[in-house]
Amino acid sequence: MDSQEIKDTILAMGAKARMAAHDLAVLDSGQKNDILRAMANGLREQSAAILEANTKDIAAGEENGLTSAMLDRLRLDDARLEAIAVGIEEVADLPDPVGEVMDEWTRPNDICIQQVRVPIGVIGIIYESRPNVTSDAAVLCLKSGNATILRGGSEAIHSNKAIAHALQSGGQSAGLPDSAIQLIPFTDRESVSVMSGMDQWLDVIIPRGGKGLIETVVSLARMPVIKHYDGICHTYIDKDADVEMAVAIADDAKTHKPGVCNAMETLLVHNQIANDFLPKIATVFTEKGVEMRGDSKALEILGDAAVVASDEDWDTEYLDLIVAIKVVSGMKEAIDHINTHSSRHSECIVTADSNRAESFITRVDSACVFHNASTRFSDGGEFGFGAEIGISTDKLHARGPMALRELTSYQYRIRGNGQIRSLHATT
Amino acid sequence: MDSQEIKDTILAMGAKARMAAHDLAVLDSGQKNDILRAMANGLREQSAAILEANTKDIAAGEENGLTSAMLDRLRLDDARLEAIAVGIEEVADLPDPVGEVMDEWTRPNDICIQQVRVPIGVIGIIYESRPNVTSDAAVLCLKSGNATILRGGSEAIHSNKAIAHALQSGGQSAGLPDSAIQLIPFTDRESVSVMSGMDQWLDVIIPRGGKGLIETVVSLARMPVIKHYDGICHTYIDKDADVEMAVAIADDAKTHKPGVCNAMETLLVHNQIANDFLPKIATVFTEKGVEMRGDSKALEILGDAAVVASDEDWDTEYLDLIVAIKVVSGMKEAIDHINTHSSRHSECIVTADSNRAESFITRVDSACVFHNASTRFSDGGEFGFGAEIGISTDKLHARGPMALRELTSYQYRIRGNGQIRSLHATT
Prior knowledge:
The structure is a homodimer. Chain A is α/β, with parallel strands linked by helices. Chain A has helices at residues 3-25, 29-45, 47-63, 68-74, 78-93, 132-143, 157-172, 190-197, 211-220, 243-255, 271-287, 296-302, 331-341, 354-363, 380-383, 421-424; strands spanning 101-106, 112-119, 122-127, 147-151, 181-183, 204-208, 233-237, 264-270, 291-294, 306-308, 322-328, 346-350, 368-373, 390-392, 400-402, 408-419. A 7-stranded parallel sheet of chain A has the order 10-9-11-8-7-12-13, sandwiched between helices. Chain A has a 4-stranded parallel sheet with strand order 5-4-3-6, with helices on both faces. The longest helix of chain A is centred in the first third of the chain and has 23 residues, at 3-25. The termini of chain A are far apart. At the A-B interface, α1, α10, α14, β13 and α15 of A face α1, α10, α14, β13 and α15 of B.
């Protein structure tokens, strides 16, 4: 395929998605939920074809030397496919954000103004190897009334095509508008730049993947980008912390699932509690094989149990059993450290003093700030959102766990009885 | 100044703005309002210096052949300066959006989650010739707890510097943090690209000006851009409209203030009411000197009173006493026309049938949709917001009239009593 064909194909998909978005915007919740359940059944009915396509991707992946972790992310089987189908049915059961009246008031001239949630329109999703994203992203967007254009990674192209086909044909049997869910059927790199440039058709673009992918989209995109960058999350143990609670929270934040964005990377400890707290958490960390990298004050207490932290450590998302530890002279130093080094994702203060907790919370410039609870709760499911499309590290539109509501925009609906500004202005 | 100096200067301003933003985020409403009132007084006290600076800009503008309209936009006098100062005091009197609890709930594991409005952080504003924007933008951003970096047009550079100085020195007497309001003291074109690239310091950038400026910022910016594009606004007269009301609304939308973005550009008329309605509105428009450009069906009714519309007319923001008129075969054609040609700003349906009005409202993909009221009410002041920074034609973050609330982000504040995910997960 040459450049012009790639461009023409994707632009045509954009125009069709816009038409589909207009149809989707007026579907009621019952219709959308019927479509979602039919999509889940479509996946089940076409499971043989999907697994066969997946076998091709796995074979190609093995040939191209993908790591076993990458192959595992790529691999589908009956259980994983059933989990995807059940996930769709769970989304069908969630409340529909579209149509929710966010605010409503009447002006002195009797004009009534409503602010109502509406779909965003057309959402572009660019993702890497996991084929389940094809379903997860399309399904959340559909529930919130949006059309999607999906561009998955080359490793999963056969699986993605088979999944998209199953969703489309299943959904269409229940009234899914044509072109509501479209997968770009090729994976040329150029497709990313074409998508990033077509702001006449895409209302927002969401890159799901590594920093390199996000950076590429950010530098090319003309439309808004919702970014899900790293989580360099901090836990700060204040001087008045309950030490047992502090150990439990720091342990959970670091070791419960170290490879995820809401895991702790840096532990900050008030110097008045460091002598009590640090040896206790060190015992836990040593037992669990966590490498500790401390500043000079931490090393005075931890001795040989820790190694020295470099400047780089304070800005590193380890995603591993490694933790950076710093002893601070007070809460202000902790806050300044966080506001300088954090990725603004999730932070925690452990303290028995709720005034100090409030002071910390209002001064820390991150999406989620926890008092006496593990940063591992920074998650759409744990927040009660039912499903999430990711954790936004942006500050505009969506911040923190991003679910159905964050996939909507709003519209002002203004009702009058003949008011004109030349006669009825209020300002 | 060479490129490197420009870049270094602006990046240094960015770093200082970030520090100031942290200080601003914890000011309470009383402190911010005191600062705002002191800023208003600063303007009054330094009025002589501001007017002297403005004289230089006017002289340079005359020399450079600015039109009289442009010179008028640039010109300040005692009355205009006092209006700016009063405007600041009005913003001080508005409610503070920061700290508002948007949502609050408790999870089954007793974790309490609050969603609280917080400032965005650092806002970059790039604008053209009007020097009052220096104050308006800085003041709205300050009230909402944000630091600003302002980059005004070269025509107004002396006025802008004098106004910024007055705001800063007035505000500092009441505790305005250093670098909370910064004006880039030069107007090299390069400053726009440096600002657009520094996403480490600017959380959002707002271009206020013509399409060319917005396009430039959109193509360069790495951070979110809030755009205020054209208003190609439509009024649709449905078959069951009250004709007298329809004439009044169409007249107001077109002629009350034709040079603004919420004025009507295209009038759509149901064919069952066209014979009754069009001659009546034509009488008004002819009397007021409005040029009518009709499609073939409109011309059949309007005869010589109108000229023929070209394809281009349906996509034009006249900002003038010109209107495009199309007779449609039904509401669906009106909606399709709007969703194809509108700039998604503001549209209106005039009808006595509220079911048809609801159908129109939910199908039209624009920020503001009016039933039986003029699109001229699409305005922050008329919505009761007190002040506006513009009308967003974006769908993410802020849509439609954009005021203090739209200059905020939010933060999740999560309070527990020792919950850890390995023991207390709810999903």
